[in-house]
Description:
The complex is a heterodimer of chains A (108) and B (117). Chain A is mostly beta strands and 108 residues long. Helix content of chain A is 0%, strand content 54%. Chain A contains no helices and eleven strands. Chain A has strands at 5-7, 10-14, 19-24, 32-37, 44-49, 55-58, 61-65, 71-76, 85-92, 96-98, 102-107. In chain A, strands 2, 4, 5, 9, 10 and 11 form a six-stranded mixed sheet that branches. Chain A has a five-stranded antiparallel sheet with strand order 1-3-8-7-6, with no helix packed on it. The radius of gyration of chain A is 13 Å and the shape is globular. In chain A, 32% of the residues are buried. Chain B has 117 residues and is mainly β. In chain B, 0% of the residues lie in helices and 50% in strands. Chain B has no helices and eleven strands. Chain B has strands at 4-7, 10-13, 19-25, 31-37, 43-50, 56-57, 68-72, 75-80, 89-96, 106-108, 112-116. In chain B, strands 2, 4, 5, 6, 9, 10 and 11 form a seven-stranded mixed sheet that branches. A four-stranded antiparallel sheet of chain B has the order 1-3-8-7, with no helix packed on it. In chain B, a hairpin with a 5-residue loop joins β4 (31-37) and β5. Chain B is globular, with a radius of gyration of 13 Å. Chains A and B meet through β5, β9 and β10 of A and β5 and β10 of B.
Amino acid sequence: xxxxxxxxxxxxxxxxxxxxxxxxxxxxxxxxxxxxxxxxxxxxxxxxxxxxxxxxxxxxxxxxxxxxxxxxxxxxxxxxxxxxxxxxxxxxxxxxxxxxxxxxxxxx
Amino acid sequence: xxxxxxxxxxxxxxxxxxxxxxxxxxxxxxxxxxxxxxxxxxxxxxxxxxxxxxxxxxxxxxxxxxxxxxxxxxxxxxxxxxxxxxxxxxxxxxxxxxxxxxxxxxxxxxxxxxxxx
Lengths: 108, 117
C-alpha cells in the first residue's frame, strides 16, 4: 500500500482544458512537495506546501494543502503541451516517500 | 539549490555484470540519497549515503547488491552488482535543496537509465 495515493494515474487532455490531480494519505505530513518529471530527466521541485489549508499559485498551477495536512491537490488551468510529464507528490515522515505519480499528456 | 551531475546517463548491461553510477554535486552536502525508479513506477529510496560512515539502506535493499561509496561531501557512487533484467531502472541521486529544508525537499540528478539484457 502506497503511503501517498495519487489519482488519476493517467490523464490525457486537449490543450486549453483544465485538470486537477490529487494526492491523498491517511498520514499527517508537516509538508508535502509536488515534483514534475519529464522523460530523461530527474524530478524537478514545483512547490512545497506547509500550512493546512494553504494555497500556492505558480502561474497556471494552483496547489492546495488539505486542512488536516493529509492531502493535496494540483490544479492546472488552460493546460499546454509543455505541461506534459509525470507529476509526483512527496512527503516525509521518517524519510521521503513519493506517490506513484500522475502521468499527464496534453495534446496540441 | 545544488546542481547534480550523474553518469552514465544511460547504459545497456549484460546479465551478471556490475555497473557503478557516479553522482557529483557542485556544493558540499551532508546527506545524499539514491533512489530507484522502475519502468512506469514512482521513486523508491534505496539508501542514504553518509560521508564517513556506511550507507543506511532501506528495507529490501542490501549492501552486497547496492554497495555505496561516499568519499567526500560532494561525491557518491552506487554500484548495481550482479545485474539481472529486474534491475533495469532509472537510478537517481538526490540531495536536499538547502540546509534549511533538511531532507524534506530534494533536488535530483537527471538519472542513470540502466537496461539489463
